[in-house]
Amino acid sequence: MTAPTELRDLAVEIAREAGELARRRRAEGVALAATKTSLADIVTEADREVEALIRARLDEARPEDGFLGEESGGGAGTSGVTWVVDPIDGTVNYAFGMPLYAVSIAAVRGTDPDDWTALAGVVYSPVVGETFSAARDEGAELDGVRLRVSEPGAAGALLATGFGYDPSTHAGDLATVGRVMPMARDLRRSGSAATDLAYVAAGRLDGYFERGLQPWDFAAGALLVREAGGVFRRPEPADVVRRLTLAGGAELVDELSRRVLPHV
Ligand code: IPD
To answer: What are the phi and psi torsion angles at 15 (to 5°)?
Structure first.
């Protein structure tokens, strides 16, 4: 069995190459390829090209592994390891020329996001030039510096959230924000869930909540948070549409859970 650190190192190398490609393509201009679940849910030519690069590199290095990507779907493997990939998390930021987007790559054992064991993960932010990485039981780091989740200070928690692309869900998400704000010193909305989770791992955010994430949005970030001593939780059953994701220190996640799901 390959050591998680080896999988992490491979993911870091590929994420950096992929991130540089994304950055180059952004500088050349962005072409919208399609809309997905709603008009606001877009995919660019670069999302597809970057995912193809990652998939090709993984195929070369580990032909027996499976693959699950945001843009190109899945492929079963025989090794038991699956790579879960979001080539550009924060596509709308990317399309609008904002710097906060990231390449997210995770290696997991198993295929069900509720049951899999994350072995390695990387969130690479190409414009900022930061690499957040983790290997199972080996901790999480930012460019070689060990990460630890934070605890909120007396002024309250610095929190982040995101809203899905479906306009009909915005009122509900805003009502949730209203219930959470009393515990917050302030709220951020970065547009990249993978970056939000990496920032929770780094203690730059005390906590994060969002509904409707997909496995490729959180696979790497969840491992980063856990390896940084935090809690990553999806408290509702798998059949809930737009399931809730929570991340942060243990006490903070409990409080978030009470506020977002008061009836549970
Ligand atoms: C999106 C981003 C965003 C979150 C959405 C995700 P994408 O991923 O992570 O922050 O609010 O739920 O779908 O589409 O940019 O890869």
So the answer is: -65, -40
